[in-house]
Amino acid sequence: MRRDSGSNMGLMRVKKSNELATLILFALLLLCYGVGNGRCTTVHENSVDLHALLKFKQGITSDPNSALSNWNTSIHFCRWNGINCNMTKRAWRVTGLNLTSKGLSGQISSSLGNLTFLRKLDLNHNSLIGPLPRLNNLQKLEVLYLHQNRLHGIIPDGLTNCSSLSYLDLSRNNLTGVIPPTIGNLSSLVGLSLSQNNLNGIIPQALGKIATLYFVDLSENRLNGRIPDEFWQLQNIRVLYLNQNSLSGGLPQSLPNMSSLFQLALTENMLGNTLPSNIGDALPNLQLLYLGANMFEGNIPDSIGNASQLQELDLKLNHFSGHIPSSLGKLSRMSYLNLEQNKLEANDTEGWEFFHALANCTLLGGFSLSRNQLQGVIPNSIGNFSENLQYVLMAGNKLSGTVPPSIGKLHDLIQLSLDENNLTGTIEDWIGNFTKLQRLNLQMNNFVGTIPPYISNLTQLVFLSIAKNEFTGFIPPSWAGLQSLQTLNLGHNNLQGSIPTEFGNLKQLLQLELSSNKFNGEIP
Ligand SMILES: *[C@@H]1O[C@H](CO)[C@@H](O)[C@H](O)[C@H]1NC(C)=O
Ligand SMILES: *[C@@H]1O[C@H](CO)[C@@H](O)[C@H](O)[C@H]1NC(C)=O
Ligand SMILES: *[C@@H]1O[C@H](CO)[C@@H](O)[C@H](O)[C@H]1NC(C)=O
Ligand SMILES: *[C@@H]1O[C@H](CO)[C@@H](O)[C@H](O)[C@H]1NC(C)=O
Ligand SMILES: *[C@@H]1O[C@H](CO)[C@@H](O)[C@H](O)[C@H]1NC(C)=O
Ligand SMILES: *[C@@H]1O[C@H](CO)[C@@H](O)[C@H](O)[C@H]1NC(C)=O
Ligand SMILES: *[C@@H]1O[C@H](CO)[C@@H](O)[C@H](O)[C@H]1NC(C)=O
Ligand SMILES: *[C@@H]1O[C@H](CO)[C@@H](O)[C@H](O)[C@H]1NC(C)=O
Ligand SMILES: *[C@@H]1O[C@H](CO)[C@@H](O)[C@H](O)[C@H]1NC(C)=O
Ligand SMILES: *[C@@H]1O[C@H](CO)[C@@H](O)[C@H](O)[C@H]1NC(C)=O
Ligand SMILES: *[C@@H]1O[C@H](CO)[C@@H](O)[C@H](O)[C@H]1NC(C)=O
Ligand SMILES: *[C@@H]1O[C@H](CO)[C@@H](O)[C@H](O)[C@H]1NC(C)=O
């Protein structure tokens, strides 16, 4: 029932019931709320709600948007901004308090713990400070949203007495201490977010026993210990974010079927060991898998290709070794693949099969294979890759030979990083096709030949480094089009002639490196 129609509806009901006692009570209530004197505060339990709200208002030190402007006793509290009520046992009781994004400062009064009919409490996006209020008695509370405030202190055990809680969001505060082990008492919990706090200690095992859990975000805390095995048994879990903590241990070597799981993020922990070999079979609906910046090792399991819904796969900064599985080519929805900084291998005779297969991923927008142990030439099949490809990062490997000119088919490239390899040959066959390129890094290779004049067609370039190669000839004069250029590094080549005066028109330029060439003449 909405607050704006609440009182009138109640009046009608009371009249219908036609009970003398009710009428008397109602008259008293009218007196109480209509006139606003203090005499009737003991009349009925709903005066408890009135007082709890007034006390809450007292705790608010700043209300820049006048959200509480009509919170005074000349108006029934059920009509106050942000309040929802319901008629119960002939009394109006507060069932909802919603003051999200009102810019409120101050403390949340524990008087809210007296609103025993409260179902939804939403104070998201304010600047409330202090400890969490004592809400132990709120047996009907289903929703508690305190996201993005400035709360500190611990999460009191007593909160887990609110046994109807379905959605609990305390994220983006400065809460400390542990996740109460009694959290398992919240047996109806569906959504839990405690992310971006300062929580430490372990993830309670009991949390993994709440079968209703659908969304769990504990990211960006200081949680340690293992991920409880129970988590992998949660039959309804759809989203699990445990990234940016200090979790250790690993994943079970054989994952149970978790067909409910859509998103799994474990980035930036200390998780290790090998991945379960059936990972892709057990997660048939997974769309996002983020395991980067951990200590995972061994092969990337072939079964990953069976997670047919996968869109984003991030395994960067681990110790994965061996060949990259060709089964990646089965991931027809994949848009993002990051395998950088591992120990993945390929050479001229084997290991590049995956690369041909990736051409099947027609939605692929970018991949990084940088800083692995890939040897040999870049396969010609790069020309068969998705034309949607925007990011190609293969720096810091042992790539050799010439870059296949077929790369020029990737018209949408925004970033091409081939630096720190042993690539040779000229760039003139393909460079002019990348008219959307913003970052081009070819430094530390053995490229030869001249800088083609149509480099000036790359008008979006922000970063250009061809340093530490064997480029020869003159700097083409036509740089005026490169108006976005911020970094230009031509150092350590065999370039000669004069420095084009056009460089002076590159207004965004922050860094210019021309050293160790054979330039002459004046600096313009
Ligand atoms: C109570 O709030 C109403 C609505 O904002 C306002 O018109 C009225 O003057 C206020 N009464 C008192 C006593 O502050
Ligand atoms: C209001 O009360 C009615 C009847 O007691 C109940 O069915 C309904 O769920 C209540 N609504 C809320 C929001 O508490
Ligand atoms: C609180 O109100 C905002 C907008 O006024 C709404 O988006 C939000 O869903 C409400 N919160 C709850 C828990 O219903
Ligand atoms: C809760 O209500 C009781 C009266 O029923 C009152 O004595 C008590 O102070 C209230 N608690 C808080 C924290 O306001
Ligand atoms: C839990 O709530 C019940 C019902 O309101 C109450 O009797 C009990 O004291 C509460 N327990 C704690 C630990 O607050
Ligand atoms: C968060 O709390 C910690 C410890 O209580 C304190 O050192 C830190 O300054 C607080 N951070 C913010 C942003 O309030
Ligand atoms: C996993 O569970 C889903 C739904 O319960 C089922 O459709 C699927 O066949 C199961 N997959 C495996 C490999 O057991
Ligand atoms: C890629 O697609 C081709 C045909 O379109 C198919 O023959 C090949 O098996 C596919 N590769 C993978 C790894 O799915
Ligand atoms: C390629 O790698 C395989 C396995 O690591 C190795 O047996 C083979 O000798 C390598 N071939 C070349 C040409 O390096
Ligand atoms: C470069 O682009 C031009 C014009 O779109 C196209 O004709 C040419 O085939 C492209 N080069 C390569 C290697 O795809
Ligand atoms: C780089 O390639 C050249 C041939 O182009 C070869 O002579 C040289 O040994 C290679 N260097 C490394 C470090 O592989
Ligand atoms: C560079 O752009 C000019 C005109 O903008 C065009 O005529 C020329 O073909 C382009 N060069 C290359 C290599 O794409």
Automatic annotation (TrEMBL):
<dbReference type="InterPro" id="IPR001611">
    <property type="entry name" value="Leu-rich_rpt"/>
</dbReference>
<dbReference type="InterPro" id="IPR003591">
    <property type="entry name" value="Leu-rich_rpt_typical-subtyp"/>
</dbReference>
<dbReference type="GO" id="GO:0004674">
    <property type="term" value="F:protein serine/threonine kinase activity"/>
</dbReference>
<keyword id="KW-0677">Repeat</keyword>
<dbReference type="Pfam" id="PF08263">
    <property type="entry name" value="LRRNT_2"/>
</dbReference>
<dbReference type="GO" id="GO:0016020">
    <property type="term" value="C:membrane"/>
</dbReference>
<keyword id="KW-0723">Serine/threonine-protein kinase</keyword>
<comment type="similarity">
    <text>Belongs to the polygalacturonase-inhibiting protein family.</text>
</comment>
<feature type="domain" description="Leucine-rich repeat-containing N-terminal plant-type">
    <location>
        <begin position="48"/>
        <end position="86"/>
    </location>
</feature>
<protein>
    <recommendedName>
        <fullName>non-specific serine/threonine protein kinase</fullName>
        <ecNumber>2.7.11.1</ecNumber>
    </recommendedName>
</protein>
<keyword id="KW-1133">Transmembrane helix</keyword>
<dbReference type="InterPro" id="IPR032675">
    <property type="entry name" value="LRR_dom_sf"/>
</dbReference>
<dbReference type="InterPro" id="IPR013210">
    <property type="entry name" value="LRR_N_plant-typ"/>
</dbReference>
<keyword id="KW-0812">Transmembrane</keyword>
<keyword id="KW-0418">Kinase</keyword>
<dbReference type="Pfam" id="PF00560">
    <property type="entry name" value="LRR_1"/>
</dbReference>
<keyword id="KW-0433">Leucine-rich repeat</keyword>
<keyword id="KW-0472">Membrane</keyword>
<dbReference type="InterPro" id="IPR051848">
    <property type="entry name" value="PGIP"/>
</dbReference>
<dbReference type="Pfam" id="PF13855">
    <property type="entry name" value="LRR_8"/>
</dbReference>
<keyword id="KW-0808">Transferase</keyword>
